[in-house]
Specification:
- GO terms for molecular function: O-methyltransferase activity.
- It comes from Maribacter caenipelagi.
- InterPro entries: SAM-dependent_MTases_sf (IPR029063), SAM_O-MeTrfase (IPR002935).
- This is Putative O-methyltransferase YrrM.
- By secondary structure, the chain is α/β, with parallel strands linked by helices.
- 36% of the residues lie in helices and 22% in strands.
- It has a seven-stranded mixed beta sheet with strand order 3-2-1-4-5-7-6, sandwiched between helices.
- Helix 2 packs parallel to helix 3.
- It binds S-adenosylmethionine.
- S-adenosylmethionine (SAM) binds next to helix 3, strand 2 and helix 5.
């Protein structure tokens, strides 16, 4: 199997990579996790989806392409410049709400419906507010994180955070986990 032969790359992908380079945004998600998110989202027609850590919308572009016409998605980032760019790409899609807010504050204050899939791609929702974010996953819903195997841009000591988070997820009896040493290291959890 050639797993590099990824199909269905969003048309806007080239533009988002170009813009990321222009503004020096070095954290966009890779093709593998993008494809994975799109596939999982396609399993949830009329679904509700959440991303914490929009960036300028690379993973968001994949998530949107997995959604059907009835689905809704919220994506949150605390950087106004990044959110403005993401809004310029996706603001016209009325299924999508892009919010500029601290992710921890957003998780603590959100009172709406739970989600079929949460992609937690910022500190909040992964290394803080973990119980809060997991409370927002529906039974049968997915909680997805990446960057769980050592990356060149990890700050000193970040391995300890990753080990602690992984151990925490492993001991939660309400989660079914699969850890994948693929892409940047993914954990997929399903809420039981
Ligand atoms: C790994 S990048 C996200 C990449 C994005 N998912 C993509 O595919 O391009 C992490 C993002 O989290 C955002 N972020 C950092 N701290 C945050 C916070 N406290 N609340 C919300 N977003 C935060 C950063 O601005 C950054 O865009």
């Amino acid at each position: 199997m050639n797993d590099t032969n990824i199909q269905d790359i969003p048309k806007i992908h080239t533009e988002i990579i170009r813009k990321s380079e222009e503004i020096g945004f070095t954290m966009p998600s890779d093709l593998y996790v993008g494809s994975f998110l799109k596939t999982l989202i396609a399993s949830k027609p009329n679904g509700r989806f959440l991303e914490i850590g929009t960036g300028i919308g690379l993973s968001l572009s994949w998530m949107i392409e997995g959604m059907d016409a009835e689905s809704k998605l919220i994506s949150v980032d605390n950087d106004q410049e990044l959110i403005s760019i993401a809004t310029s790409y996706f603001g016209g899609d009325d299924r999508v709400e892009v919010i500029c807010k601290d992710g921890a504050d957003w998780i603590k204050n959100y009172t709406g419906l739970k989600f079929d899939l949460i992609f937690a791609d910022a500190w909040p929702g992964k290394y803080s507010e973990i119980d809060g974010v997991l409370d927002l996953v529906k039974v049968g819903g997915f909680y997805i994180i990446d960057d769980m195997t050592k990356q060149p841009n990890w700050p000193d000591g970040h391995e300890d955070n990753v080990v602690e988070l992984t151990a925490y997820l492993e001991q939660r009896e309400d989660l079914q986990l699969t850890k994948m040493n693929w892409s940047t290291g993914l954990i997929m959890a399903v809420k039981k």
